[in-house]
Amino acid sequence: MIQKTMAAVVTGLAGTLIYAADAPKDTYHMFPKPSKGYVRYIVEVPKTDKDNDRRVEVLIGKKMMVDCNYHTFWGKIEKFPVKGWGYHYYKISDIRNGPTTMRACPGPKKEAFISLALPSEEKLIPYNSRLGRVFYVPKGFEVRYRIWKAEETVHKAQKR
Question: What is the CATH classification number for the domain harbouring 81?
Answer without folding.
Answer: 2.60.40.550
